[in-house]
From TrEMBL:
Organism of derivation: Penicillium camemberti (strain FM 013)
Gene3D superfamilies in the record: FAD/NAD(P)-binding domain
SUPFAM superfamilies xref list: FAD/NAD(P)-binding domain
Keyword NAD: no
UniProt keywords, alphabetically: Flavoprotein, Oxidoreductase
Name of the protein: FAD-dependent pyridine nucleotide-disulphide oxidoreductase
One example of a Gene Ontology biological process annotation: cellular response to toxic substance
Keyword match Oxidoreductase: yes
Molecular-function GO terms, alphabetical: oxidoreductase activity
Taxonomic path: Eukaryota, Fungi, Dikarya, Ascomycota, Pezizomycotina
Family: Belongs to the class-II pyridine nucleotide-disulfide oxidoreductase family.
FAD/NAD(P)-binding domain: residues covered: 9-301
Length: 327
């Protein structure tokens, strides 16, 4: 687009469940909206998606493609742009503030409102085999991936906080022949909460293995993951539970907009529905919540559009008060 006047009612950055849900809600409200999709997704390494009503066991890429196709067939106000947004500016020097987004080739788009639904990305540990098995044997969510590996031995790698004990305890109902937590010689020191968490796991029946892990690999003789240690025999498990850190995928955009963030870099929403510290900018999905699952992302995407509509109404009322527009 060459004009500097806003040509879209809303810009949505992110083509995952949150962004798609926001776009559909806007389309049904007959708003012009463009969805910018970088084609990078947190679950791109997962073979199948689970625990999603009507889509259990479906490939994630087929789910996304089906949703996009459905919206393109029904809503002529929705446009999909498969490109990565590298810059966002909030322009407030005219009659009405708006947003400008730019991709790597310098193309520009302008919209009155902005919904950030750009998701998150995991910071995977630098250990041989981990990346290849992430989402395909090494999992972080039992609701998403645990059922298919039930009845096997469960391994836990990288237990870093007492809060991570909850899914570990839940894994006992899936484990057929036990659960092992790989501590790699963890020194707890004064971390009493972590010591208590391990004590609870052990009392429940977990085993602790303090050996240093050298690598992970697929089991060549069938399903499961093989754990290779610096010393001693390998260990075969049905799956590995792991909880790597993650960060916002669009951290640079969040920073450039000056949005309020928490210590982990994620946007702090100012309302339940996703308003941010910047007027006209809303947040949805993994960008603003610790509950990084499809259902929550979809709900927050719709919620952001509700907040957007409320914001529009407030602007109309304000202009009416100023005598610039009749109700």
């Amino acid at each position: 687009m060459c004009s500097t006047e806003p040509q879209l009612d809303a810009i949505v950055i992110g083509g995952g469940p949150a962004g798609l849900a926001a776009a559909m809600a806007l389309g049904r409200a007959c708003r012009t909206v463009a969805v910018f999709d970088s084609q990078e997704y947190r679950n791109e390494n997962a073979s199948l998606m689970h625990n999603v009503l009507g889509h259990d066991g479906q490939k994630p890429e087929l789910y996304r493609a089906g949703v996009v196709r459905d919206m393109m067939d029904k809503y002529d106000t929705i446009t999909f742009v498969d490109t990565e947004v590298i810059d966002v500016k909030h322009i407030a020097d005219g009659r009405r503030a708006f947003f400008r987004v730019k991709n790597r080739t310098g193309e520009l788009w302008y919209g009155l409102k902005l919904i950030l639904a750009s998701g998150s990305k995991d910071i995977l540990p630098d250990i041989d085999g981990y990346k290849d098995l992430w989402g395909r044997g090494i999992v972080h969510c039992l609701f998403c991936d645990g059922y298919e590996s039930r009845r096997g031995h469960v391994g836990v790698y990288g237990l870093n906080a007492a809060s991570e004990l909850d899914p570990v305890l839940m894994a006992f109902s899936l484990a057929g022949d036990g659960l092992t937590i790989y501590t790699e010689g963890m020194v707890l020191g004064s971390n009493e909460s972590m010591q208590k968490a391990l004590d609870v796991a052990v009392s429940r029946g977990a085993r602790l293995d303090g050996r240093q892990i050298k690598a992970f690999s697929r089991n060549s003789d069938g399903p499961g993951v093989r754990v290779h240690f610096q010393e001693g025999k390998d260990h075969l498990v049905g799956m590995i539970m792991s909880f790597p850190k993650n960060e916002p995928r669009a951290a640079s955009l969040i920073q450039s907009l000056g949005l309020e963030t928490g210590p982990d870099g994620y946007v702090v929403p100012k309302t339940v529905m996703g308003a941010t510290s910047l007027h006209g900018c809303f947040v949805a999905g993994d960008t603003s919540t610790a509950h990084k699952i499809v259902h929550v992302a979809q709900a927050s995407g719709v919620g952001a559009t509700k907040e957007l509509a409320r914001d529009d109404a407030a602007e109309i009322i304000e202009k009416a008060k100023e005598g610039q527009q009749k109700l």
